[in-house]
Design brief:
It contains 7 helices and no strands. The protein has 178 residues and is an all-alpha fold. The protein has one domain. Helix 1 packs antiparallel against helix 6, helix 2 packs parallel to helix 6 and helix 4 runs antiparallel to helix 5. The radius of gyration is 17 Å and the shape is globular.
């Protein structure tokens, strides 16, 4: 049962890293300090992870407003890999690096499209960025609850497929028939 809880928590934290790459590491460090992560490695509860997670996370979340899309996706993939490995590394070493990077980058791909649409439709860039940073903290906190992380991955997959279908339907009338 601890394995399922650890996998769920690590996947949920990787989803949170798709919103803001470093900020969920602060939530991860707090949860590890409290003993709520059964599969975490010992370094997850160290104070440098806590400091980098919160201080560095705030800087990175604010910088996301001006970073190009490939950099945002790459940072989220890296953050997802680190979060997944820190929270799952005791049970499944090195598996979290691959799975976390895929989940983080996939979530970033989905959310970046949504964020860019919100900004393009007139939303203030810094306001949208602040909301996404706050959402990453909330998602990371929810990911600590057992099994919720797996549900979060399912939600991201559903939203990604739905936004892809919306894009295909939007340009359907522009096809040229021969």
């Amino acid at each position: 049962m601890d394995n399922l809880v650890a996998i769920s928590q690590s996947f949920g934290l990787a989803v949170a890293c798709g919103l803001a790459a470093v900020l969920p590491l602060g939530v991860l460090a707090v949860a590890a300090l409290l003993g709520w992560l059964p599969g975490s490695v010992a370094i997850a509860a160290e104070s440098p992870i806590l400091i980098v997670g919160w201080a560095g996370g705030l800087v990175e979340a604010a910088a996301r407003a001006v970073l190009p899309i490939p950099v945002r996706i790459g940072l989220s993939g890296l953050g997802g890999a680190v979060a997944c490995e820190l929270s799952l590394g005791h049970i499944l070493p090195f598996v979290g690096l691959l799975l976390g990077s895929a989940i983080g980058a996939g979530t970033a791909w989905t959310t970046t499209r949504m964020v860019d649409r919100a900004i393009a439709s007139g939303g203030p860039r810094w306001g949208v960025t602040a909301l996404v940073g706050g959402a990453s903290i909330v998602v990371a906190a929810l990911a600590i609850i057992p099994v919720v992380g797996l549900i979060l991955v399912g939600i991201v997959i559903w939203v990604g497929m739905r936004s892809r279908k919306d894009d295909q339907g939007r340009y359907a009338g522009l096809r040229v028939l021969r």
